Amino acid sequence: MTRYCCPGLRPEPLGAYLAGLGLLRLISEQVDPAATALWSDDGLVIDTTVADLAGWLVGEYRPTPVISPWNGGSGFGIKDKEPK
Q1: pLDDT in tens for each of the 84 residues of the chain?
Q2: At a CB cut-off of 8 Å and minimum separation 6, what does 16 contact?
Q3: Which residues of 43-64 are buried (b: 16+ CB within 10 A; e: fewer)?
């Protein structure tokens, strides 16, 4: 496992906290389901099997599709109010 310290991702303010959780979610979903994280005095610390986190984010990361099913559907289905 490789340990990465992300000093810009702290538990406060809320935006930085959510960014840290989002980064951990992306790593867990796309490359390493066993990744773990903790908050330290230096920021978010992530333990993962990814050898080069910055390289993975630049070269292999795939953004999560954004849909809004709470607005009458995803916009892609036949039963949606207004299919796109």
Answers
A1: 899 999 999 999 999 999 999 999 999 999 999 999 999 999 999 999 999 999 999 999 888 777 666 666 666 666 666 555
A2: 8, 9, 10
A3: bbbbebebeebeebeeeeeeee
